Amino acid sequence: MALEVFRSMPKRVVIAWNIMISAHARCGEVESCLRLFREMSESLYQPDQWTFSALMNACTESVELLYGCMVHGFVIKSGWSSAMEIKNSILSFYAKLECHGDAMKVFNSFGDFNQVSWNAVIDAHMKLGDAHKALLAFQQAPEKNIVSWTCMIAGYTRNGNGELALSMFIDMTRESVQLDDLVAGAVLHACSSLAILAHGKMIHNCIIHHGLDKYLYVGNGLVNMYAKCGDIEASGFAFHDILQKDLVSWNSMLFAYGLHGRASEALCLYREMVASGVQPDEVTFTGLLMTCSHLGLIDEGFAFFQSMSSEFGLSHEMDHVACMVDMLGRGGYVEEARSLAKKYSKTSRARTNSCEILLGACYTHGDLGNGSSVGEHLKNLEPQKDIGYVLLSNLYCSSGQWKEAEIVRKAMVDEGVKKVPGSSWIEIRNEVTAFVSGNNSYPFMADISVILYFLELEMRHTWPVNLDIE
Question: Per the database entry, which stretches of residues form a coiled coil (predicted)?
């Protein structure tokens, strides 16, 4: 409708072109934006800073480097490269696409900073993985708004610093900053990454208090948070509380059921989703195939894998192939898994991913023949990654091939590859305790060792074991 009105205008002014380009940019239609821009130029209308800012934002959302560089070239040629709005958009673009050098060149060209500039700089540092510089920029900013806090919270979470994200959220509430749905979603994601249910419930209460629980983005975050924190019932309640569910809502609940081994609920939810007219996407099938893989539903998994292309016209991506290889490998169909991986793994990364899964399956089922060749291939694909050496060495050890295992371990040392230590954590009374393999400096380590000793006895023998160690 908007495009029809625009086309019917007897004389189009620059602001009308900008409105249409911005509208297409918000919808992620970068090629439509560029077509409009070309038509605007051919009609002899001069673009301004708002035109180029909208174009750069469209390129940022599309994650198309070529388009963004092309628009950046137009900006320089037109003489608008010093405009603050355009600089902010260009900085966000290069940061989003992780072009560190280009992002820093744009950053160093800044003269004066406005509020949007400071937020763009904070976000850029976070996207480049430098949380310390982002914090310095946040502290130096003369004024902070909700976007500044959201950039910090989302950035900490994205860089694996969930505790700092929660701490930043607490600081924000102490500053009496008014919450919105975006910062609520960001802090819920932090709780999901930490998998601490008590923190998630605390944030949920805060969200209800501020009347944000009915926002779609927040509702989807609640579904994911409760699932990741182990409360599948609360995840289901959060899902049913969403009044206008979108595809993300359905996918989040599908993953939640799969994560908790609820195969029948996941399959029923998928059928309900399709019946309601929601078209599944690649993420939907990743969740379904993951569920089938973990629960050994091979026939159902193959049916979903085939229906992706035949029924919905979707292509098989790396994650789908990985789930299928994992599903067949878990079921003991190692040859079939290897054949499927060879057929569908087109990129180097996909081949590496499939080989890792195959090698794990070979170790589980004691398949030395396939395992040795897959392991050698994996070492050649990624000689600096520890998983190929470790799995292959373990496979040789379990098969009694001690000499071959020693050769693999020596090759690992010669390459300078170190095994990443295993880790786990547990939440008790709202406190998380993490354990790392090889580190015995925990409090009560002696008591833990005694309990583990008695548990091992109980697992190995059928007679009752007295666990009263006091």
Answer: none
